[in-house]
Amino acid sequence: MAAPETKKRVYIKTYGCQMNVYDSERMTDALAADGFAPTDRMDEADLVLLNTCHIREKAAEKVYSELGRIRVMKEEAARSGRNVTVGVTGCVAQAEGAEIARRAPVVDLVVGPQSYQHLPRLLGEVASGRRAVETEFAIEEKFAALPKATRSQTRSRGVTAFLTIQEGCDKFCTFCVVPYTRGAEVSRPVAAILDEARRLADAGVRELTLLGQNVNAWHGAGEDGRAWGLGELLFRIAEIPGLDRLRYTTSHPRDMDDALIAAHRDLPALMPYLHLPVQSGSDRILAAMNRKHKAADYIRLVERIRAARPDIALSSDFIVGFPGESEADFEATLRLIEEVGYGSAFSFKYSARPGTPAALKDGAVEEAVMAERLARLQALVDAQADAFNRTAVGRVMDVLFEKPGRGPGQLMGRSPWLQPVAVEAPPERIGTIGRVVIDALVTHTLVGTLVDPPAGAWPAQMAHSAETAP
Ligand code: SAH
Ligand code: SF4
Ligand code: F3S
Fold this sequence. Notes:
Elements: E1 8-14, H1 18-32, E2 36-38, E3 47-52, H2 57-79, E4 85-89, H3 90-96, H4 98-103, E5 109-111, H5 119-127, E6 132-134, H6 139-145, E7 160-164, E8 166-167, H7 178-181, E9 186-187, H8 190-202, E10 207-211, E11 219-221, E12 227-229, H9 230-238, E13 245-249, H10 258-266, E14 273-275, H11 283-288, H12 295-308, E15 313-320, H13 327-340, E16 344-349, H14 367-390, E17 396-404, E18 410-414, E19 420-424, E20 433-442, E21 445-450
This protein binds S-adenosyl-L-homocysteine, iron/sulfur cluster and FE3-S4 cluster.
Cofactor: [4Fe-4S] cluster
Domain MTTase N-terminal: 8-128
Subunit structure: Monomer.
């Protein structure tokens, strides 16, 4: 009998935002072509990659404690004659470069987000005994080189998928490392986006989330010869058969143009949920953050979006304790939250990041004050989220079934508003959209009952999206 094929195995641990999740999948694809099979067990991997996040100090420090554990594992493997290669990718790699290998000698490889297409070559360098560090900024090259997988190679990753359409950021909010770790704003061309969207649809994806650090700054030359923004692009992507649901993240308030707002009104496939970070409700703090808009501008924008799509659920990011934030500034943030009414929100204590302008500002807010403000803010948004989720009870809604649930015979899906929904349904319903009546809210999960006709008898939700395209 032939010996079983021994393939090299790669384990990737992903930190940070959806962009990193997407990049990890693409690295998995690129390495598959190089003979690596993915594994979810770090202790059996020949190559361990940490795809890292630099956004807050805590996120960056996690990497070093993980590298401490990996050093022990690598030494154990070496004793049994197995060599493990250790790499750091992502935003810490970009920000700290060779410094990482100095601080953690276990690291063989440091690769920034713009250089993943060079991974196979860099692994070759490591194999020949060199330490490889690459943090060049050539983002266009990344877009040109990475979407290599052919139609047949694209592995199905389930019912939902991310697709990066834009990378980098030119906004330079004074607290943020992203413009430094991800470089200048670059939009991916329409043809490449449509090609990847079609491949994902063919592989069984029903819900596509378009990604970008500033996704609504995306722009490109349209197929009709006109300049397109994200609104036009969404209409075009919705024509692809199979893609029943579209989302996009993360948006900047200043880039919400009329065409995009109109898409929320006219494009049924565009789900009624929008992550629109505002960070603060104080004009003084917004100015110090370089957000380039006032609290009232944001509230007017929310009104326009709600006029286009009245049932839209909004979410946001908030930072408490930005340098100089007074109690009055913080209360302005609470007032903005009261006025907008969020379906969910993410909130963070300010973390000074090396190299950012805010890190040089006076007026540091005490840790205890930050903790107290964060708790008050979270209590308010939690109450709003709970009230929002409660309005779902008793309603009938479309649920996209994504995976088996915890209970026997149960599936987990998502509502149009991104709420998790648990429903008793047969496994063959995964990948389909069902009509569900919501019976209860159990902590943060909706629990419902399937009320639609059997699979196949129900027309695909949003089947008419193509008719409404421009
Ligand atoms: N591009 C997105 C945000 C990317 S970072 C946008 O503009 O909204 C995700 C969130 O992390 C930010 O919205 C912000 O709330 C938070 N964040 C970024 N830098 C931070 C810092 N230095 N300290 C605390 N939170 C931060
Ligand atoms: Fe960071 Fe601001 Fe750019 Fe968002 S818009 S990535 S917060 S600099
Ligand atoms: Fe973190 Fe980089 Fe994303 S810093 S949030 S992984 S862009």
